[in-house]
Specification:
This protein has about 120 residues and is an all-beta fold. The chain has no helices and 11 strands.
């Protein structure tokens, strides 16, 4: 399985941005998809996870109400819509695909939020 994340960039506080992650080499609907992020000098942290059928989505408290994850099975793609961005959201964002013992990571996309 390969994951290709895109959509990062440099924005100002309060702006919005949408990240995308395309999965290839696997049956997309089988995978639990998630986003993580890693800020400079910090450990990678959980952002949001979405179940295989999209019925359930769970967010980290730090992004709840501002970020929305969605998945489009027909395009093998998950999205992370990020609104009301804050400087503390600055990080490399990674998408993750999990299917039982198979756990795959994308290459990450950089988001920088200036104050």
């Amino acid at each position: 399985v390969q994951l290709q994340a895109s959509g990062g960039g440099l924005v100002q506080a309060g702006d919005s941005l949408r990240l995308s992650c395309v999965l290839s080499g696997g049956t997309f609907s089988r995978y639990v998809m998630a986003w993580f992020r890693q800020a400079p000098g910090k450990e990678r942290e959980f952002v949001v996870v979405n179940t295989r059928n999209g019925d359930s989505t769970s967010y980290a408290d730090s992004v709840k109400g501002r970020f929305t994850m969605s998945r489009e099975d027909a395009k093998n793609t998950v999205y992370l819509q990020m609104n009301s961005l804050k400087p503390e959201d600055t990080a490399v964002y990674y998408c993750n695909a999990n299917f039982y013992l198979q756990n795959s990571w994308g290459q990450g996309t950089q988001l920088t939020v200036s104050s």
